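Late entry, written up from scratch paper. The run itself happened at the end of the previous shift, but nothing got recorded in the book at the time, so transcribing now.
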Amino acid sequence: MHVDQINPFIESATRVLEQIAQISSRRGQLGLRDAVIPRHEVAVILGIVGQVKGQVSYSMSMETAMRIASQMMGGFHLETFDDMSRSAISELGNMITGNASALLEEKGIRCNISPPTLVTGENMSISTAKLPTLVVPLETDCGPFEICVGLMET
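Output as recorded:
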């Protein structure tokens, strides 16, 4: 996994959060894991195939997810994490990964993405491929937002 394959996800997340929800973010200390395993209780997971393959996840607390969904819906107050807010958070993951895919394409790396899968719950156990994963924490105006990118060249 190369930095030029990871930076598009960071750049895209920062841009999409700002453009779609007017949320600013600051990158935290990068870390490594041996799989794309979300840390928080709300996660959007997408697969990536092409010249690189792997997975990416975006995870956040329930509170952060509700705040982001609210911002995406123009500040509409949310009482619960309902179907509309789930859809908004899933679409956020889809937009970030779609934009990252376009940025990878500009670098000559062709890839496609799967539809997003939204999972929620505490102490989740998700079976994912074991591959080196870069963890990028973002501190946003709505709370912590974590990006996990695990890619390998095909």
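The two ends are 11 Å apart (CA to CA).
(Scratch paper discarded after transcription.)
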